[in-house]
Design a protein that fits this description.
Blueprint (H helix, E strand, L loop, with lengths): L9 E7 L4 H13 L6 E7 L4 H6 L7 E6 L2 E7 L4 H14 L1
């Protein structure tokens, strides 16, 4: 796992769990659209494997996607969302970067 607070650039970090059906759906959505956004970095975090990191970022439900710019949280989305909504959110985050 990367040290998020030490990163530069824009990162999208998905917090999920292997037992979570909406997380699996969100992972497929992310995989389908991520190639369209070459300027964003991506990390997947399993909340069961990384409980301290999940606690640090106050993950209350999965999936949760947090966007970071230069190590600082800029936005977050909780729950599984459709590809077009995620695309719009990524564009919004990149435009603000």
């Amino acid at each position: 796992m990367i040290a998020i607070e030490e990163t530069s650039g824009v990162w999208m970090v998905k917090f999920g769990a292997t037992w979570c059906s909406p997380c699996k759906l969100m992972a497929k959505t992310i995989a389908s659209i991520l190639p369209d956004f070459t300027s964003i970095n991506y990390q997947d975090v399993d909340t069961d494997d990384e409980p301290e990191l999940s606690k640090q970022y106050k993950i209350k439900s999965v999936p949760t996607v947090i966007f970071f710019k230069d190590g600082k949280e800029t936005d977050r989305v909780s729950g599984s969302i459709r590809a077009e909504a995620l695309r719009a959110k990524i564009r919004e985050v990149l435009d603000a970067a």
